[in-house]
Amino acid sequence: MKEKTNFLESRLYPVVFMIILSAILTLILAFSYQLSKGRVEMYQELRLQTNLLSLFKSEIPELNDKVIKENNPVIMNELYNKYLVSKILANRPDYQYYEFLDNGNTAGYVFPISAKGLWSTIKLLVAIDPEFNQYLGIKIISQGETPGLGARITENWFQEQFTGKVFYQGNSFNKLQLIEENGNPNADQILQITGATVSSKAIVAGIQHDLEILYNQNFSNVKVD
Amino acid sequence: MNKKQIFIQSAFTENAIWSQILGICSALAVTNQMKNSLVMGLGVIFTLALSMLTISAIRSLIPSRVRMMAQTFIIAFYVILVDLFLKAFLPDTSQQLGPYVGLIITNCIIMGRAEAFASKNTPLDSMVDGIGAGVGYTLVLLIISFIREIFGFGAIFGYQVLGSWWTRWSIMVMAPSAFFLLAMLIWITEIRKRKRG
Amino acid sequence: MEINAVVIFFAAIFTSNILLTNFLGMCSFLSVSKEVESSFGLGVAVFFVMVCTTAINYAVYHLIMVPLDIVYLQYIIFIIVIAAFVQLTEMLVERFSPVLYYTLGIFLPLITVNCAILGVSLFMVIRNYSFIQSIAYGGGAGLGWLLAILSLAGIRQKLKLNRVPAGLRGAGITLIITGIMALAFIGFSGIAAIQ
What we know:
The complex is a heterotrimer of chains A (225), B (197) and C (195).
Chain A: H1 2-9, H2 12-55, H3 65-70, H4 73-83, E1 84-88, E2 96-102, E3 105-116, E4 121-128, E5 135-142, H5 156-160, E6 168-169, E7 172-173, E8 177-179, E9 189-191, H6 197-219
Parallel strand pairs in A: 8-9
Antiparallel strand pairs in A: 1-2, 2-3, 3-4, 4-5, 6-7
Helix pairs in contact in A: 2-4
Chain B: H1 3-12, H2 14-23, H3 34-57, H4 67-89, H5 91-97, H6 108-118, H7 123-152, E1 155-156, E2 159-160, H8 170-173, H9 175-196
Antiparallel strand pairs in B: 1-2
Chain C: H1 5-13, H2 26-32, H3 36-68, H4 74-96, H5 98-103, H6 108-112, H7 115-126, H8 131-159, H9 171-186, H10 189-192
């Protein structure tokens, strides 16, 4: 008993105590991390699949708001395998994009794109028709813009504006313009978010910049004359 | 003091609310939606309850020279567990909460309760005290987020309760409103405290 | 595409002030902001610690945590780095510059529990900043915090001469002033749009 008290008061004891404490805590954490890892990865995959599928909501008969909300991993995986296939660019082996298949025919492409926001790199998916004429839709995947201002780019009305806008017309790229949030947009105009000009601009510029490069380098032969 | 008294004292008395208001700051940013506030509050209750239990259980073993360090370690341990849980089961909420889950570590309430209560009392009492402080904290968060969400979005817990006729107050979604609401809450608490003498 | 570090720096000071929009570092903000002088001392200390710990945490995160796949331990590791850095600075300052120790040193223990410091490191990871961007963000956030606490201390000194409703004295009126300051800072977001 006496020995123990002495050890508890020795100079070494705090060090030993901290080492034992951190060893135990870290061990438990490592164990729980391993347990949760599989689930986290599964969710990430599910989220990607759901995002990809919801871009083609109007073209996939099995998919409606209810199915998206339920977000059943099995159903989503089934639909994903049926309608989408991931591909890799010939000149950029690390870049993965997706092809949307309707009865075995390519009915659209989806490209992951990053745009330079005010605060953060905004990551989004852009769907475009197989001939690169018009956008089929966009989906913001992650962003770190100011809540209430720039973060409003995730609101549905903002994202839905891109659907049907022209990307390539005649022999040149079509430029989209930004106008005030409460304005009346024409076919080539996008309503920007009040107080978040940078975030809105970033998305339009990011999409056009990345898609133009992709088109020029890899897809300039998709046009059917 | 029995367990019930401990709970009430750390959750609902004016002094507790006062310290909760100060401790709330790190979570103010998530109070524009009730759902996020609730998840955040539950995370804090969990962290408080279990870290108080642990700290109190090994309080005679913790060397005084590294007491703060050891307490921080234990708190951080439970916060990481909360974080792993959220990532695995509520991935969307986890993404929305961003860094604020991690910031539970620096929440003054937790360190305060550890110093003031858990290092002097039995493990079970400390746990009850922790849960009490956490529940009070969650209530404050929910009150603020209720006001912000209903005026800012016309919704409660994400369900639209006010129709499209409702003009949303963007100020309620933005940061300043949280400061004003917190000030109002402090005002009301102070008035009640004064009346009781 | 990289975000310009200069933009991050100024945005962290004005449009997205860490205190006024992210509510980080409020505890010490409310308790120390009574005097301009001590506010300045604390602000400078926060700025210094923020820049240094962001740099160290960046290195620790990318050189140790990512290769070892222990990113999930980031909270614990970041807080240890911050606590150790603060302790070390305190010892160095005490030893080599007693004058500086008496003006700034007393604030150092307050800083470990300042959530703004940990917050900057966590935001850096979430936003995936590069090293330069992280330093710019840490510096901007630190200066922004200093700016916020200095202006509040200035206003609070004037406030001593005014009559405030009894229940609002202290934290209440301070929060209202902070709210008005936050409103004013929203005005800066117009500038960011020009870049």
